[in-house]
Amino acid sequence: MKPKKIKDDIFWVGAVDWDRRLFDSLIPLPDGTSYNAYLIYGSEKTALLDTVDPSMITVLKSHLDEVKNIDFIISNHAEQDHSGAIPYVLDKYKNAKVVASPKGKPMLVEHLHIQEDRIIAVSDGETLSLGNKTLEFIHAPWVHWPETMFTYLREDKIMFTCDLFGSHLATSDLYCRAHWQVIEAAKRYYAEVMMPFRTTIQKHLEKIKGYQVNIIAPSHGPMHDDPECIIRSHREWVSDAVSNTIVLPYVTMHGSTQLMVGYLTEALSEKGVKVEKFNLAVTDMGKFAMALVDAATLVIGSPTVLTGAHPVVVSAVFLANALKPKLKFASIVGSYGWGGRMKEQIISLLSNLKLEMLEPVIIKGLPKDGDYRVLDRLADEIVNKHKENNIV
Ligand code: FEO
């Protein structure tokens, strides 16, 4: 990979990771990712904005082969996929200093064992002159870690936003061109790590309204030279609005839960409600997380195993609870052979979510006519709740 010129004296020097398929041993990356780093030559000083994941350090090394000096390494985010190569850069450029937020400084010390005296903590709104270019640091905590900040390059009106507006997408495009693909990858990323911080991100979107931004340069995926497109998508995702959609994750063992889920899906779709159904035994959990971004209602389908919910369902419910989607309603459907506390266990796992639980439908064995009538009632109740709340 070669550095890519963004403007005179500004270069992309990151790494595209075409082959990575999992992040944090949890998040599927069907389309790979990139770790974006940017090099800015001022008339007096040179700054490197973020670095790359340690697994791609050889790529960064090759980018910096011809670079004689770096004065500042701006660390917008201390997570290792962006900070992991900072020790290498500090070793190569002995006078370089790292610039981070006050919360970022101790994190870099803890996670990477960087010497404290090589890190400068900057306050919100503080600027750093590179000569003819000025970096302004904008504190933006909890993009998904507490120390995150943005860096605004004033003269060129470029906003470097770390993970925010990023997408896990390996592409040879420097800028977002395949819009549909990029927005889907960005939504996946938002869903998987940023959704729990939705109300904080609302504030960040308000804060950057005060800046003229010609280019958004995130730390994953392509840059945006039409910033409004990606900003508009994020505004929708973080808004309080929900869609007339049910997310229906389920597992089946001997077919009873599948019959119930299938019947409920038909009943709801006949009434004009969209259902996003996920067989958790085979689904891409990233798609499940994406569906939770906008949906009004979650209905969980589970058989009963060893007196509780199926472990795969437990994992999905745990994730949904941790992601804190803006769901309004939930219910449970499922079956048991002889007994158990599946319903109670699932409800106890949803404690983060401020939602109304609609009466679950839990049956013994294969569903009978009467069970289908109860599912009809649940479908009616969901439809009525959506109507009463103007969810259309
Ligand atoms: Fe891309 Fe939060 O690191």
Report on this structure:
The protein is an alpha/beta fold. It folds into two domains: 4-238, Metallo-beta-lactamase, Chain A (4-Layer Sandwich); 246-382, Rossmann fold (3-Layer(aba) Sandwich), CATH 3.40.50.360. The protein is 33% helix and 24% strand. It is built from twelve helices and 24 strands. The strands form six sheets. A seven-stranded mixed β-sheet has the order 1-2-7-8-9-10-11, with helices on one face. Strands 17, 18, 19, 22, 23 and 24 form a six-stranded parallel β-sheet that branches. Strands 12-13-14-15-16 form a five-stranded mixed β-sheet, with no helix packed on it. A hairpin with a 2-residue loop joins β20 and β21. α5 (179-194) runs parallel beside α7. The structure holds MU-OXO-diiron.
CATH topology assignment of the largest domain: Metallo-beta-lactamase, Chain A
Architecture per CATH nomenclature, i.e. the level-2 architecture of the largest domain:
4-Layer Sandwich
Query: What structural category do the secondary elements indicate?
Result: alpha/beta
The CATH class of the largest domain turns out to be: Alpha Beta
Total number of beta strands: 24
Strand content: 15-25%
* Mean pLDDT metric: 97
Output the CATH homologous superfamily of the largest domain.
Ribonuclease Z/Hydroxyacylglutathione hydrolase-like
Percent range for helical residues? 25-40%
* Total domain modules: 2
Shape: elongated
Lateral strand order in the biggest sheet: 1-2-7-8-9-10-11
Radius of gyration: 24 Å
CA-CA gap between termini:
47 Å
Largest sheet: 7 strands, mixed
Helix count, per DSSP? 12
